Amino acid sequence: MTVEGQFLAECTDGEWVHGIPTAVNEIVFDSRLIEQDKKQVFIAMTHGGRDGHDFVDSAISAGALACIVEREMDRACPQLIVPNTLNALSDIGRTIRERYEGTVIGITGSCGKTSTKGLLKHALGREVTFSKEGNWNNKMGVPLTLFDLHKSASRYAVIEAGISECDEMSELSAMIQPDLCLITNIGEAHLEGLGNLQVVAEEKSKIMEFSKEGAQLVTAESVLHYKVFDAYKEGVTCVCPLSEKDRVSDEASYFYDYEYLSTGTSKVHVRHLNRSVEFEIQSLSPGMIQNAVLALATAGTLGLELESVAKRLESWKPEMNRGSILNQGGVLFYNDCYNANPRSMLDSLSSFRVVAKNHKHKLYVLGTMNELGEETESLHRAVAREIAPNPNDQMVFVGSKSLTSAYLEGAKLAGWKESSLQCVESVKYLKSMVEQFSGAVFLKGSRVCRLETLIPETD
């Protein structure tokens, strides 16, 4: 569909001044992303730390076709004036989604959302599936993703929804209006704004709140342990490890097990009703394997042939900083630096133990985990306690003193000697240490830790 300026005004109850653009290709909130002749409209966001109106001049100079603003600017360019730019963006995204004729899949969960989105694009077929690269999953990213649907004639659209506070998921669900919902897991993430796991489950369940009539839920069996999901158990598509089959009464569930291969991949075996399929996945992460089965189950729920789906999943590769494995200069790097919470940290540590089993020396670099609320320090201690000591290994904790100290306490409780442990506030203190290390290096922490900068650049 073509997006005209008048359409944007109708979506938002806004008013154009100084002209109306005839065709809009993209809405951009960062003036640095504006390019000449791209038919981009700059939206001046005001809900963050900066006022986007301060960047209208630079956006117009860079080639913006028009601007969406909350007050008229002293520039002779088309301006759509709206009461609130964030609300206007939501209205635009929701209206375009309502005009989209394909199937919309909404994904949420405490971790693994972006990777599952990538897996699902492979499972459904890359040529018929729309998704936006990266994690455009918040109140600004979701409507920007939905806006891009106007350029797509895809059969499926995969939209990721992430939250950090209560009631955010309701707003996202109202925009996404999913035809099918996929929930990866429930874990300790964003507890600073959500409080506890029960609230996390309740908020994640709200992705179903504005779903289309008859929308189905695909999720891991562990998610259904939370009472809030009792309302959705009838008709839910459940994914469960084969070892836990006795806990599931629904024979239509997807049961799986897996084995690690010498190639550094995993072979996954899936049973559904009277059928069995298997595929290899380029990951040793139990969490990622479950996400792949969730993608398979979603495709099966939508009526796709499982053997073909399984074959397409084999072409998936983990994105950089999301569990990728690099060999540089004789050193193995397990790179999972995009973000971290206790669940994803333990999952990555499990994978690293398999990847690095033949390496005599291992270096664990753990960045702190953010937004965990009142239990932050105890959760850091608990993670470190799960890492078994080895006399040839070293462990370094990166971040604030209070949280690295909690890591340190947990490691000591696990039996680590203090001589093998170190706490630093910044990765800059580790560069020479990593450069001189020979063995396997584990890197995971919140984005602010910037652990990926420890990986040597290649020519």
Task: List key phrases describing it.
20 strands; about 30% helix; alpha/beta; Udp-n-acetylmuramoylalanyl-d-glutamate--2,6- Diaminopimelate Ligase, Chain: A, domain 1; UDP-N-acetylmuramoyl-L-alanine:D-glutamate ligase; about 450 residues; 9-stranded mixed beta sheet; Protein-Tyrosine Phosphatase, Chain A
Give structural notes.
- This protein has 459 residues and is of the alpha/beta class.
- The chain has 3 domains: 5-83, 3-Layer(aba) Sandwich (Udp-n-acetylmuramoylalanyl-d-glutamate--2,6- Diaminopimelate Ligase, Chain: A, domain 1); 100-313, UDP-N-acetylmuramoyl-L-alanine:D-glutamate ligase; 324-454, Protein-Tyrosine Phosphatase, Chain A (Alpha-Beta Complex).
- The protein has 14 helices and 20 strands.
- The strands form 3 sheets. A 9-stranded mixed β-sheet has the order 7-8-6-9-10-11-12-13-14, sandwiched between helices. A 6-stranded mixed β-sheet has the order 15-16-20-17-18-19, covered by helices on one side. It has a 5-stranded mixed β-sheet with strand order 1-5-4-3-2, sandwiched between helices.
